Amino acid sequence: MTFSTSSASPSVQDGLAVIVVAAGSGTRLGYGMPKALVPVAGRPILDIALESVADALPTARIIVTVPAGDTELSAVAAAHGARAVTGGATRAQSVACGLAALDSSARFVLVHDAARLLVPGRVTASVAAALESGERAVIPVLPVNDTVRGVDAQGHSTGTVDRSGLRAVQTPQGFEARLLVDVNLRAGLLERDQHGALAALDRAEDPEGITDDASLIERFAPEVPVTFVAGDEESFKVTRPFDLITARAVLEQRAR
Ligand SMILES: Nc1ccn([C@@H]2O[C@H](COP(=O)(O)OP(=O)(O)OP(=O)(O)O)[C@@H](O)[C@H]2O)c(=O)n1
Ligand SMILES: C[C@](O)(CO)[C@H](O)COP(=O)(O)O
């Protein structure tokens, strides 16, 4: 399914909130500071990520999860008119912190990794457009380019996997807001207090196999289809130092 527009319609932005998760430590990047603060072409990753989101969704409400005790990322969020909230110990727990801060009027919610700082507006807009057209869970994906093999406990190949049946998953992932709240409640990542207010729960670890938001839908609301839209190579996640070289190159190319 494809929804190719360059910016989301005003009607969908009206009821849409975006949670940008930026509370990670960036261990694999190894800069000794939260990854979202690491500069790319002189600007913090979060600053560029928020600009990318705002390109497609200029009027959407944005919540940014930041590490406990942070002031710098919160200032970047404020400069974009976004609200900063303290995240959790894992990505999933940070998303739950963002959901607990959600306005009750939000009909749709997009969850985006700050680390995917260069997501093209077309991708964000097509996730929002798919929600507007009635989809309840929408994720951008790409085909897998490399040959993929299984591996056994000894580290030997168990054979080639048919990659025509595989997709690499990106963000932003979009959901009907009530659905994403509901699966987070069922997963024990969120709870409601006696007044009905949502609160994120501290956990030692995430439910097994939960690596993104759509996997919560698949586990806790399997009757809801997860719909694909076309992702983009420029939505890659900055994970290791090499990714910073690519990010700089993309920014330079866009500036030309
Ligand atoms: N407790 C966490 C962990 C991750 N994230 C966010 O989730 C996104 C994807 O996570 P990942 O790339 O794994 O980031 P880090 O956890 O920072 O990386 P690492 O595992 O190398 O420490 C990032 O934007 C990151 O800031 C978050 O908000 N809260
Ligand atoms: C959510 C995600 O970006 C989808 O590809 C990814 O699962 C984040 O997890 P990671 O293990 O930290 O790369």
UniProtKB/TrEMBL annotation:
It is an enzyme of class 2 (transferase). This is 2-C-methyl-D-erythritol 4-phosphate cytidylyltransferase. PANTHER family: 2-C-METHYL-D-ERYTHRITOL 4-PHOSPHATE CYTIDYLYLTRANSFERASE, CHLOROPLASTIC. SUPFAM superfamilies: Nucleotide-diphospho-sugar transferases. InterPro entries: IspD (IPR001228), IspD/TarI (IPR034683), IspD/TarI_cytidylyltransf_bact (IPR050088), ISPD_synthase_CS (IPR018294), Nucleotide-diphossugar_trans (IPR029044). The record marks 28, 35 as: Transition state stabilizer. Belongs to the IspD/TarI cytidylyltransferase family. IspD subfamily. Pathway: Isoprenoid biosynthesis; isopentenyl diphosphate biosynthesis via DXP pathway; isopentenyl diphosphate from 1-deoxy-D-xylulose 5-phosphate: step 2/6. Catalyzes the formation of 4-diphosphocytidyl-2-C-methyl-D-erythritol from CTP and 2-C-methyl-D-erythritol 4-phosphate (MEP). It comes from Kocuria atrinae.
